[in-house]
Design goal:
- The complex is a heterodimer of chains A (560) and B (243).
- With 560 residues, chain A is an alpha+beta fold.
- In chain A, the strands form six sheets. A five-stranded mixed sheet of chain A has the order 13-12-1-15-14, sandwiched between helices. A two-stranded antiparallel ribbon of chain A has the order 2-7.
- In chain A, strand 10 and strand 11 (238-241) form a beta hairpin.
- The radius of gyration of chain A is 26 Å and the shape is globular.
- The termini of chain A are far apart.
- By secondary structure, chain B is mainly alpha-helical.
- Chain B has one domain (2-215): Transmembrane di-heme cytochromes, Chain C (Fumarate Reductase Cytochrome B subunit), CATH 1.20.950.
- Helix content of chain B is 63%, strand content 1%.
- The longest helix of chain B has 32 residues, at 81-112.
- Classes of the chains: A alpha+beta (560), B mainly alpha (243).
- At the A-B interface, helix 3, strand 8, helix 24 and helix 25 of A face helix 2, helix 5 and strand 1 of B.
Chain lengths: 560, 243
């Protein structure tokens, strides 16, 4: 066994409203430079849809990821090492900038410098690649919210897999958003494709990075990544990719996309896995076995043998604690609601997704049924074949079983929590039908619905992961060296951002001062008014009393 | 003049070639790249680039054989002068034609496709000029002199001169009186070699043959133990914390 730690992410698709805040903040942080104008390390695509770059999931065309040889050995879909070296002068499977979209700006100067004339001057679109006037024909989100209609949606490579059974009625279709970043795979095909060995996986946290000094611009990685999350910087001639915001997570704060997520749908945490088991798991013959095979690679951080192995591997207590408190492990293993994106690419991706239940609920509500009744929902999950099969193409290589199980757990959680919130007696049968306990359903609800910052992001700092290594190095007084306390980048950032002095409440300084006395409406039982209103000053005894303590109708609260 | 052209210039060019590469490798790892333009245009590149590169590799092989290996050696293994000439002209013409065809496609692409044109720097243009001159004069030698013309035995003059530079017993006099096209070709190549390390041609020296034997997945540890070995480490470390 070779135990390794991996920083992973889970996204709860039910909560994604498609606002693109993650994409925009990521762009501002990482790719607002020339050469990568067309690159979005984080993008949000509407599904069904073509995705970005267009039809990237069509691996017959783009040759991304791994495949099995006739003898069952794992090999890159784009060919053997030798074949790919022969193709090094011209990569036959490389997407061009036009397959993403041609980036543009507008000739704003014309608005100011145009001479006086009868018509209003316009700012014409100008290509950022050639500097010439251009016609905009595609963008990073051209088919957002099913834009482009049936013509565009029909080009989704996944729909072609299910569409022989289904004629897509555009007016009756379902829709959800899929935010995507680099998967930081356990078996990264981009790294395996790199002729220069410039792409590496960090052994401490599993983040996959491109060494900009070693990259020679052979652009094989762009083909190798089946998610098309490696971008060729056409100015510097080097490959670039999502860095999992390593300068942030190294000091224990979440990635920019997660930090700024409006829906708070992202979770970040540590997962332990057995690196020696990855190859075998990625080589299972049946695509549909890849999801369970990957589950088998993860190690249980609560198992004393795993903890002992982690200590032997030099992993610090901070990281072991983080792995045990990991929201990722809970969502993937404990509740099994999160699923990998396209496991059939055999890269063992580490950004997982909780499939959206909303298309079912909406479909039910649209037909006049109670969309949150457990029985109705379970029936709908089975009856609404199209969305479930589509989700299965996305998350489980077409196996509807795990998708259905995950959706049923989410449905059970909705039904159970509605009973709780309406004060109805809990029906333990709901939880039992999805093989969870009532307590588990409620803790899953807390994690999915109301978890605070420090529960959504359990990120140990990189300084902790170095502790053992630095211990071994410490032969003299550490204060003598350049890296003494207060002198490293970590100390400076700690000072500036109060990284190690976390506020007691995850909302931190932004929360109102009397927050602890306020009621959380999400937990409100509908009766008590304790904390529902601003605290009444002590010198005003006649206007409080009964109203606040007895839970009478809040509408009679006198206006002061 | 003879000394300047056939003794001083070659050594200056070689020095620039070697020292330039070492300097650039140590100080400009980030700039060391193919600067591929395939993300702008792929169709013409897929036609021209393999033709050009494989052709050029064959041309390089031919030069190693023709310039590097003395005529006495080939004779010793039983290759007659006529057989050598036949081989060199036929293979040289073929690989030369492939190179020139590829280069023509690539040059057309570089200047006709506006995105590729916009990605072309001044140093690129200078490099292309030198490269074209070297290849065209070379073709002139192979086709003009050796195929159509009577043939010129450069293995009696150019080759020994070139080798003499490396044995540190230079014989510049060998280059006097040889056909002007051979002289120009040699001079152009020397200038190209002198400029080589400062252009994108450096990518030749990062041909990734090691890829064939290395493991698929590369693991690397965060390098915090040796911060000062990094190029910009000082700039970061000496910055006082801002309050």
């Amino acid at each position: 066994m070779r135990l390794m730690a991996q920083l992973a992410m889970v996204m709860n698709l039910d909560k994604c409203i498609g606002c693109h805040t993650c994409s925009v903040t990521c762009k501002q942080a990482w790719t607002n430079r020339s050469g990568v104008e067309y690159a979005w390390f984080n993008n949000v695509e509407t599904r069904p849809g073509q995705g970005y770059p267009r039809q990237y999931e069509d691996q017959q065309r783009w040759k991304g990821g791994w495949t099995l040889t006739k003898r069952g050995r794992l090999t890159l879909r784009s060919g053997s090492r030798f074949k790919r070296l022969l193709n090094i002068f011209a990569n036959p499977d490389l997407p061009e900038v036009a397959d993403y979209y041609e980036p543009w700006t507008y000739d704003y100067d014309n608005l100011l410098s145009a001479p006086q004339m009868d018509t209003t001057p316009v700012a014409r679109p100008v290509s950022l690649i050639t500097g010439e006037d251009t016609a905009i024909t595609w963008g990073a989100n051209w088919d957002d919210d099913l834009g482009g209609g049936p013509e565009q949606i029909g080009r989704d490579p996944l729909l072609t897999k299910v569409s022989d059974k289904v004629k897509l009625e555009f007016q009756q279709t379902f829709m959800f958003y899929l935010p995507r970043i680099c998967e930081h795979c356990l078996n990264p095909s981009c790294a395996a494709s790199c002729p220069s060995g410039a792409i590496y996986k960090r052994s401490e946290d599993g983040i996959v990075l491109v060494d900009q000094d070693k990259c020679r611009g052979w652009r094989q990685c762009v083909t190798g990544c089946p998610y098309k999350k490696i971008y060729f910087n056409h100015k510097t001639g080097k490959a670039e990719k999502c860095t999992f915001c390593y300068p942030r997570v190294e000091v224990g704060i979440p990635t920019v996309c997660a930090e700024t997520c409006v829906g708070r749908l992202r979770y970040i945490g540590v997962v332990f896995y057995d690196a020696d088991a990855v190859l075998a798991a990625a080589s299972v013959p049946d695509d549909k076995d890849l999801y369970p095979a990957q589950l088998g690679v993860f190690l249980n951080p609560h198992d004393p043998r795993v903890v002992a192995e982690a200590e032997r591997a030099g992993i610090s207590q901070e990281w072991i604690d983080a792995a045990q408190a990991s929201p990722i492990y809970k969502l993937i293993v404990d509740y099994q609601v999160a699923l990998p994106l396209h496991p059939e690419y055999r890269t063992m991706p580490m950004v997982w997704y909780i499939p959206p239940l909303s298309p079912m609920v909406d479909a039910l509500a649209g037909t006049g049924h109670d969309g949150e009744d457990a029985g109705n929902l379970f029936g709908a999950i089975d009856a609404l074949r199209i969305p479930v099969e589509y989700l299965a193409e996305l998350f489980t290589a077409g196996d509807v079983g795990p998708v259905r199980a995950s959706l049923q757990r989410l449905a059970a959680m909705r039904a159970h929590m509605r009973r709780v919130n309406l004060g109805e007696p809990a029906d333990p049968e709901i939880a039992r039908s999805v093989r969870l306990t009532t307590d588990e359903i409620e803790s899953m609800y807390r994690l999915l619905a109301i978890a605070k910052y420090e529960h959504r992001y359990v990120i140990p700092s990189a300084a902790g992961s170095d502790a053992h290594r630095l211990d071994a190095l410490a032969t003299g007084c550490s204060l003598e060296s350049d890296g003494a306390p207060g002198m490293t980048a970590f100390d400076v950032m700690d000072d500036k951002f109060h990284l190690t002095q976390q506020p007691a409440d995850g909302n931190g300084a932004a929360a109102p001062v009397d927050k602890e006395r306020r009621i959380n409406l999400l937990n409100w039982d509908g009766k008590s008014t304790n904390g529902l209103f601003a605290a009444v000053p002590a010198h005003d005894p006649q206007s409080n009393g009964a109203v606040h303590t007895n839970g009478a109708n809040p509408a009679v609260e006198p206006i002061r | 003049m003879t000394t300047l052209l056939w003794l001083t210039l070659p050594y200056v060019a070689f020095t620039s070639f070697v020292v330039g590469h070492i300097w650039r490798y140590r100080h400009d790892q980030f700039g060391w790249t193919t600067r591929s333009s395939q993300s702008h245009e792929g169709r013409l590149l897929r036609l021209g680039s393999p033709l050009f590169h494989f052709g050029l590799l064959a041309v390089l092989g031919g030069h190693v054989l023709g310039i590097g290996v003395p005529a006495s050696w080939t004779a010793a293994v039983g290759v007659s002068e006529h057989a050598y000439h036949l081989m060199s002209v036929s293979f040289g013409t073929l690989s030369g034609l492939a190179t020139v065809t590829g280069l023509t496609i690539l040059l057309y692409r570089r200047f006709a496709v506006s995105a590729v044109r916009a990605a072309t720097t001044t140093i690129d243009k200078v490099m292309y000029l030198m490269l074209c001159a070297a290849i065209l004069t070379g073709m002139l030698n192979t086709i003009g002199s050796n195929l159509i013309g009577g043939g010129y035995d450069y293995r009696a003059t150019v080759s020994p001169w070139f080798r003499s530079l490396f044995t540190l017993s230079p014989q510049p006099a060998l280059m006097v009186g040889i056909p002007i096209s051979f002289q120009i070709h040699a001079l152009v190549v020397l200038v190209l070699l002198a400029g080589w390390p400062y252009t994108r041609l450096v990518h030749v020296f990062s041909t990734p043959v090691g890829y064939l034997v290395r493991p698929y997945i590369v693991y690397r540890t965060r390098d915090v133990a040796h911060p000062s070995s990094r190029r910009y480490a000082r700039a970061w470390e000496t910055a006082p914390p801002r309050r």
